[in-house]
Amino acid sequence: MKAFADVFHQAPDVVASAPGRVNLLGEHTDYQGGFVLPTAIPQQATVALARNGTDEHRVYAADLDEWAAFPVGENAQAPFARYVAGALALGGASGGLNVHVTSDVPMGAGLSSSAALEVAVLRALRRLGDLKADDEHIALVAQRAEHEFVGVQCGIMDQMASSVADTHTLLLLDTRSLERQLRPLPAGAEVLVLDSGVPRTLAGSGYNERRAQVEEAARLLGVPELRDITEVEALTGLPSPLLERARHVVTENARVLAALEEGVDAARFGTLMNASHASLRDDYAVSHPRLDELVSRLQAHPAVYGARLTGAGFGGAVVALVQAGQATAIAAEVLAGYGPEGRQVVP
């Protein structure tokens, strides 16, 4: 893999990193003002920058061995570079930059490799002195980059998790107010993440369609967002599939709040995760047969409390809450019967 000096023949001015994330509960609720419970993962995107004295940004993705170049303030043609272009433009990059990107966050796995890249670029701009922003503002700018330069109308969860979460606790985030708390994992449990080996891309999936459906459901119900609906009975009268899409959002918000109640142990938390996967599969229709198979294998394991798809769906990764100290052994047993495309990501 080529280093910064190998491709640009200079040393970087700054280097910054940001982590991917895995979401335990609260899927497809963040763009309806809901509640989410992600945590950061150890894998990170790392961005090195140096001023190049031109009016053009030059980006090299070391893992892909791909180049892109585009004028300052404009978008890139290459899809991989649009995340960088958006962050640079909206982050106020003053003049052309040489940009070197590496990442060990799996791409297409629902672990927010794009948010990690956007946040890493913005952190690098902050270190360079071009951007004055706290971590919350960085997340909001990264979300705008996704909307305006990539074309994915994502919620705020991924960027907030990448910008403010850590790998030791759960981030309880109210995506309407951006109020947040750090919460401990249930006692005696740890997080296991497995990649199904089925890649997906948000812009080419049904993600934007799902968002449009729940926005239409909220409009028909006369509320700003489905966050404002707390009873499933209030959804009566919505046409299909808007009814099913809205039911997922309402019940998913309820599951996040239930997981925070006093006395909730790992077993109860796992039950909520299992119910979340069923809702994502049946009501929101964002699962995949291979995801369902992997989740079923995990749920059948005696040392697993609960499992579900994580991220937008349509492929990608699954997350499980498992007995502390057992994650690696569980992963080996589950993957042995799944197929060579599956792999352990966390821990």
Query: What is the CATH topology descriptor of the largest domain?
Result: Ribosomal Protein S5, domain 2
Q: List the helices and strands in order.
A: HEEEEHEHHHEEEHHHHEEHE
* Residues in helix, %: 25-40%
Distance between the termini: 24 Å
Dominant shape: globular
What is the CATH domain class of the largest domain?
Alpha Beta
Number of strands: 11
Structural class: alpha+beta
Low-pLDDT ranges: none
CATH architecture title of the largest domain: 2-Layer Sandwich
Quote the average pLDDT: 96
Number of helices: 10
Domain GHMP kinase N-terminal: 90-162
Keywords: ATP-binding, Carbohydrate metabolism, Cytoplasm, Galactose metabolism, Kinase, Magnesium, Metal-binding, Nucleotide-binding, Transferase
Domain GHMP kinase C-terminal: 265-335
Family: Belongs to the GHMP kinase family. GalK subfamily.
Account of the 3D structure:
Strands 1, 2, 3, 4, 5, 6 and 7 form a seven-stranded mixed beta sheet that branches. The protein is an alpha+beta fold and 347 residues long. It has two domains: 4-180, Ribosomal Protein S5, domain 2, CATH 3.30.230; 185-346, Alpha-Beta Plaits. It has helices at 4-8, 79-90, 113-128, 135-150, 157-164, 207-221, 242-259, 266-282, 289-299, 327-336, and strands spanning 14-25, 35-51, 56-61, 66-71, 97-103, 170-174, 180-183, 189-195, 304-309, 317-323, 343-346. The protein is globular. The model has no long low-confidence stretch (mean pLDDT 96). The chain is built from ten helices and eleven strands.
